[in-house]
């Protein structure tokens, strides 16, 4: 009499993570860090007026302390100072000049503290990138301009007054310009300004740059009442030093793909004589681990219980546990440690959680020197065979 008996065996097929064991794949993201900076500049100023362009150029310097709040917006407190020039177009009654006019030029000193709101246009348009060498910016600001006393202006006003007094031609220079002696003294003007910048990064801390700014003030900055605002423009070059780190990096690991298990159930028909006892086949379970880990995941714990149930059902059975690591990454020292840890954590679970006697458990570690699977990532495993 023949008997048919179905014997269940599980052949595990699985997809695992495509990342390496010791070098995770992902992206490195730059993170902006707020910071202070110091800026020193020097250059030339052009003050608008009635004289020729070249006669209105004068030296200027600027120093500033700033704070960059974000990758796009900052603020700075600075002082622009040194020298301005101006020229008055004066009428000569004696017609010494062919056109009847001459230009009286003179210079005077000033200093102008201002606070600016700054914008990094490159970061606004293209995003934050601390490796970018050239950055363009813009700013707007307000402040005060303290114009110092000018002996040149006072002397020229006195000369014109004396000339009028000595040559009575029926015209009055002072009412023409509404000029008074007090206007030759020091005076404070409200200041509005805006400009563009270009900075070339030498290191994370140092950069060099250019700045063009335009400044507008109330009338009489050039000692003349012309009925319209006065203005000047600065072209500056200088250096900037950033205090502390301006950015940090953050590693973003690649998302882990979902691990899916597919069990194939194969029915095997075995013909045995009726009185013969059924043969007990060995049980194999492959317990897979995450990259660079020796912890049994919740999804793998059922496999440990399968081994424990098998050994409890067959008191004379023993189990052999062999740990592995993948050879695609890392080195032998690291992979030996991982493979050993993966084997020992299964041994510990069988002994402490399921009460399997230590004498029934054997274990070994192959590191990455032996690769049981053709696919590299499958070799992060402990192979358990109970029989």
How would you characterize the overall build of this protein?
The protein has 387 residues and is α+β, with helices and mostly antiparallel strands. It has helices at residues 121-126, 151-166, 173-177, 301-313, 332-352; strands at 3-15, 26-32, 35-47, 57-68, 73-91, 101-120, 134-147, 187-201, 206-217, 230-242, 247-253, 260-272, 283-288, 319-323, 361-365, 381-386. The strands form four sheets. Strands 3-4-5-6-7-8-9-10 form an eight-stranded antiparallel β-barrel. Strands 13-16-14-15 form a four-stranded mixed sheet. Helix 5 (332-352) links the parallel strand 14 (319-323) and strand 15 (361-365).
Topology:
Elements: E1 3-15, E2 26-32, E3 35-47, E4 57-68, E5 73-91, E6 101-120, H1 121-126, E7 134-147, H2 151-166, H3 173-177, E8 187-201, E9 206-217, E10 230-242, E11 247-253, E12 260-272, E13 283-288, H4 301-313, E14 319-323, H5 332-352, E15 361-365, E16 381-386
Parallel strand pairs: 14-15
Antiparallel strand pairs: 1-12, 2-11, 3-4, 3-10, 4-5, 5-6, 6-7, 7-8, 8-9, 9-10, 13-16, 14-16
In short:
This protein is of the alpha+beta class. The chain has five helices and 16 strands. The strands form four sheets. It has an eight-stranded antiparallel barrel. Strands 13-16-14-15 form a four-stranded mixed beta sheet.
Tell the overall outline: rod-shaped
Sequence of secondary-structure elements: EEEEEEHEHHEEEEEEHEHEE
> Main β-sheet: number of strands, strand sense, barrel status?
8 strands, antiparallel, barrel
Number of separate strands: 16
Q: Could you give the order of strands across the largest sheet? A: 3-4-5-6-7-8-9-10
Strand proportion, as a percent range, falls in over 45%
Regions with little confidence, pLDDT below 50 for 5+ residues: 6-23, 93-98, 167-178
